[in-house]
Amino acid sequence: MGAVIVTLGQVFLSGIQAFFLWVVQWFFMKLLFLTAVFVIVDFFWPILIGLFPSYLTDASEIQQLFGVFPSWIMYLAYWTAFSDFGFELVISAMIVRFTIRRLPLIG
Question: Which keywords fit this entry according to its UniProt record (predicted)?
């Protein structure tokens, strides 16, 4: 009877070890993949900005474009720091979301 309990305990511990090994491998593979996507997006971001027309990258033109928005939208954009890093953050998030959804195993 004691040998059966020892054997069941070893099987149970082996199962727990296999489960935690699977979780760790899954976590590190996801972390590696998302880091690679971030590096690729971060590398190609200046290249993509260079492809935009000049009226989207020129500061005076952008100020004129934002001049048509109501003041309450500009107030919200100011407090959410949209002009500092928010625009880049939104575009990067959209590119990463697009990339992840195109991968059959991830998205």
Answer: Membrane, Transmembrane, Transmembrane helix
Cα–Cα distance for residue pair 56/66, rounded to 1 Å: 11
Q: Across residues 1-27, what is the average pLDDT?
A: 80
| C-alpha span between 24 and 20 (Å, rounded) | 6
Q: How far apart are CA 69 and CA 37, in angstroms?
A: 34
Tell me the Cα Rg of the chain: 25
CA distances from 10 to 5, 20, 21, 62 (A): 9, 15, 16, 67
Q: Residue 9 is encoded by which pair of tokens? A: 């305990």
Stated pTM of the model: 0.40
Interhelix angle 2-51/87-102, nearest 10 degrees: 120
